[in-house]
Amino acid sequence: MSRQVSLCKACGFFLAPLMVLLLLMAELGFAQAPLAEALATETEAAEDAEPEPADSPSQEDIWAPVVERLVAQGLDRGQLTELFSRPEAVFDPEPMSRKLNGLFKTAFGSSRIERMQRNLAFLEHDPGAVDGVYGDATHAAIRSFQRERGLRVDGLPSADTAFEVRAAAERKRGREIRRNPAYANTAGGSVYRSVMKPERLAEAREFYVTSRALIRRMEIQYNVPGQVAAGIVAVETRAGRYLGVTPALTTLASMALCRDFSLVEEMFAHKELSEEQMGWVRETAARKADWALREAAALIEYSGQAGVDPFSLPGSLYGAIGVSQFMPTSALKWGVDGDQDGRLDLFTVEDAVMSLGNFLVEHGWEGGSEDVVRAALYRYNHSNRYVNTVLAVAEHIALAEVNATLPREAHVVDVAGVEELLGAVGPDRILALGPGEYDFSGEWEIEGNPHVTVHGSGPSAWVEIRDVENLVLVSEQGAAITAGEQAEHVLRFVRCPGLVLDNMSVVQANATEPRSAVLGISESDGAHIQDVALLSSGGLGLEVVQSRDVALSNLHVTGSRNGALVLDHVRDVLVGNGVFLDNHGPFVVGIVDADSVQLLQCVLRDNTCTDEHLVNVDAQSESILALHSYVAGNTALGLVNNEQRLEVEDTECRNNAFGP
Fold this sequence. Notes:
- By secondary structure, the chain is of the alpha/beta class.
- The longest helix is centred in the middle third of the chain and has 32 residues, at 275-306.
């Protein structure tokens, strides 16, 4: 009993009955080890337990500094409190950490430091060893140079100081350099190699061709070449294919919160930084946090004007938004409602393209001078490689373009509506089509014009134009010529040498005849079709027959069910930047008894040719070449049925049913 009493006193009043039970069980031979171990563990845990930590900060507390600063800028506190209490508002230190790390490497990277050291030594400011290491000697040499030149003395290898050191060294060598940001530190014209791959270039061409009407409008309004616009969109978002994942507001607000440097200080804990370097990092973090706060405020304002949830807008690594990747402050200043729907939405192609044109003009784009062009592009993205890449993509697109030559003595006639269009057809005429739809599915009687025949009526009506030399149909705004679902064709030209069709779409809702073509051209030497889209839900796209010296530039064919393009008994034909998407039938391109045909920089994507090949070339055809083209996502037996008749060079095939 004395043993039991001592145990009870040791364990306390509440444990006494349980201990008595355990001892009794032991005396009776019961196995009590598991329960005893559990009791011992619980007792030790109770003895070792530390006081519970204070509650972790609430979401409201985390974002309070950002909310207060945004309120100080005039934003509504209630809206902000609600916004930053949502689950999407998750602090992420990565964007600021990435930005600071990149800027630090740029400022203190070995190659840049080594260049500065060489120039400093040449200027007799001893940097010590020329080894690319920013040490005490280099710091002292920079301070000495800054003091001598009357610059801010901080000893840091900033971009401004690096330029001044280089400029001074070049002057001592008897050379002058200009401070043009588009040329400073250009690494031998280097480009983003990933963008110059066949797939990415094909994306740029496809965007350029399928958006030609819009791009032409931008070219007219802002005088910015469409190839440059396509280059920007291709580099920024892969022509709208990748717009980001993380909400831009999350990124920008997180960077703004990092004005509290302790949130990202750990990233630099392992680096051996001098006092000046750490000061530079802190100062840069504060400056970038202030920048991010302004952008976050602008994004909230932008989303309010657009009527969208701020957290629904994905952004880049640093919060740029939309197809053309504008920072929110730039969107508010230079964004343009391109589709004129009453609101700015940079996630629509129309608004994005018109906005980038406006931005470039507002930042000095005037065309002509390469210096001016490069400087304006540099303002869009402060990277020389970026500027080089955009211009390289633009040049690539232009390689396959051939601009039409208009007749010198032609008479220009402005037309609006079907009757005016058909009544004005004649030789040596430029018919300038106003914007809108020209629908042939009606009752038309064109008297006194021997060149025009209207076949059928109502939904079966289509138009044939014959025996007209040097006829030009052009539309600045991109007119649409359409026919009804029962029409055999939409538009057909016979014996029209020198024909030019420029910047329009030809649309057929359906095709009743298996060989009917949306657009037909026959016996028309020197015909030039540029910036034309053929949209069909049946039949054939474009058929060119018995014609020579034909140029098809930026042709877009989609939706055909009996082939996209047929070249029959033709000679010397160039198909440049042709884009053939989602067509079905026995082939995409059919070539019959042809000589000297080039398919240059064409894109064939997502077409279906059941039990056949994408390109069908007969045995009588000669000198047929496919060059620098891109073939992807197609269902067919192969690229070409007759490899002896079609020479394929530098053409990328990817993800097709017939293999790479």
